[in-house]
């Protein structure tokens, strides 16, 4: 998923600029690589007898998407907390487009040879990032490049964000706490099959079986509410706060992901929400570890890691098939390494330059329009 970038108009004030939440950049790589490991589980399980807890943990990687949505809501709220007015909303949407679309298009180009029969209607839906918005064709969400469905959901979040932020900020104190509890409960129950609520026991909940953005919106809103809570309370939290709180929350998160408790593991959004809050404070050794330069670099490349995993796996398979054995069989285990290294290069030499170019183009056009309006006056 895309790391949040601050626009020029919405940069934190000088007193906030030193606190740029670097630990949350680092943790994004762990979440993205977790998804990669989950998609590689069939290959691992076919070759080794994995311990049951490890197999369950790897099979739970799909829940990293929920973590991404929550994290996205948190960081956007922190970064754009002063967002208001039509011009600022337009600037926000431009910034999001510049941030996510270059790598998104690159992933589609790399995946195009492996989708020869995809119709033009489906292609246009994917290019417009609305493939997950159609309740009558849920299978369309995974077309062309399967992980891209989450970017379609994020695009919906971005459209809603300025209006959601205005509404949530209008709620004060107790109302925000009630909303926090409500959306937390929806995140858990909406993805948990309960008899009488979701149909037959064992039947997947609707939020787990359909990728519709509105069904995933509670996860994003939960992140926004945690972000608003952080903005209100972070300055008053004492430096003497126990450094073991994030460790306890991370351990709880890992335990829920590793235990055979079925869809109830969606409870993981609760400790993860608290963990995001603690890591954002940056006051403990866990946050400092995630804030190191290697983790910041990997976190920056995590968007490409997540989005390019399918096309890179396919291209590596083709490339290594040309080699004789035993070298040909090394393509699969080397794929994660190749993916990470390639993603770092793409982050530095494609993603960031393209983002700056697009934002600069938008800025020049906006300045020209303003100059023309002034001349007319």
What features would you highlight for this structure?
377 residues, 16 helices
SSE topology sketch:
Layout: H1 14-17, H2 22-39, H3 41-47, H4 52-59, H5 64-79, H6 86-111, H7 120-127, H8 149-170, H9 174-189, H10 206-209, H11 213-233, H12 245-258, H13 269-281, H14 285-290, H15 293-320, H16 331-376
Helix pairs in contact: 2-5, 2-15, 4-12, 5-8, 5-11, 5-13, 6-8, 6-15, 6-16, 8-11, 9-11, 11-13, 12-13, 15-16
Structure overview:
The chain is an all-alpha fold. It has one domain (8-376). Helix content is 68%, strand content 0%. The radius of gyration is 21 Å and the shape is globular.
**Which descriptor suits the 3D outline?**
globular
Tell me the total number of β-strands: 0
pLDDT averaged over residues: 86
Write down the Rg: 21 Å
Q: Uncertain segments of ≥5 residues (pLDDT<50)? A: 3-18, 193-207
Beta content: under 5%
- Helix count equals 16
Can you summarize this structure?
It contains 16 helices and no strands. The chain is mainly α. 39% of the residues are buried.
